[in-house]
Amino acid sequence: MKDLFGKAILDYQQGNYTEDIVTATSISEEDSLPLPYLFRSYSEMPLLEQTALQLSKGKVLDVGCGAGSHSLYLQNERNLEVTAIDVSEAAIEACKLRGITHAETADVMEFSGQFDTILLLMNGAGMCGKLNRITAFLNHLKTLLTDDGQILVDSSDIIYMFDEDEDGGKWIPSETDYYGELLYYVSYKGEHEAPFNWLYIDYNTLQNAAHACGLQCELIVEGEHYDYLAKLTK
Prior knowledge:
The protein has helices at 4-13, 35-38, 47-55, 69-76, 89-97, 134-143, 203-212; strands at 21-25, 28-33, 60-63, 82-86, 102-105, 115-120, 145-156, 181-188, 191-192, 196-199, 216-222, 227-233. It is α/β, with parallel strands linked by helices.
């Protein structure tokens, strides 16, 4: 991995912002992701993220923290003890430069500890890549939760992106096991990341997966773009 997301985040933090990240998926065209959006303040965040930050409590693990905007708010405005983790070394360097006290390069699947809140925002469950990995993912997160802890996760039901047939059904590509499984493409400053698997999981599928892992799943709020915030508890 070239870690283009991390390079872009660190560039912006260090004042080297000249262009945005370009993303695409196996079912959507190229789109620009403005770097300032990754550094947004609480007031600039969508309702789903604001709600998750208000629900956060105790010791918090911010998984896939990126530029650290959620962690920064919880640390500075809510005075919570936050650990921000990301697989990107450059993103974590930017988080430290922004003043996040506990930030480290780590894969959550190899992480240990006990937390009252685990945040998986900006479609954090997407890092599973494939639906058949969600059980192992949730079971591991469960080991990181205190007895009364919570996992706050947002995602989207992307069924709306597929064409309808004349009977109202959807045309789903046969090569994927689940319609929310995509290939994700990232480019930045003329470099291209190798495509990687990414998962968008609809709420009912997440709920079923959570129940199979012995977790309760509650729909907290629905967004305006087929997105939602859910809370998982033991």
